[in-house]
Amino acid sequence: MLANPQTYFANLPDPRRQTRNKLHKLEDIVMITLCAILSGFEDWVSIEDFGHENEQWLRSFLELRNGILRIPRDAGHDSMLMPDSVPPSSRTPFHADGGQHSIVMSDT
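The structure corresponding to this sequence follows.
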């Protein structure tokens, strides 16, 4: 049996701004993203769709106190992927499309 990956995410530093708008736990975002990518989903919109389609199952092991994170469907969407405030050392390489992109998901 595989180890629970959530234990590895428990102490991740949260690069998001400290605001009242931070509605989702970083651990929830990371787990949804991991599950979606392992299931073959390759972009933020499809990862959100995965979350909605599997919300009942995800709630069996995630808190999801404010539901599934919604991805903005407009031009402002890019700010989620590479906020200037995130130092390069905190960015995560993402290889789902065969390339390498630094991404950070944000509630801002």
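The radius of gyration is 14 Å.
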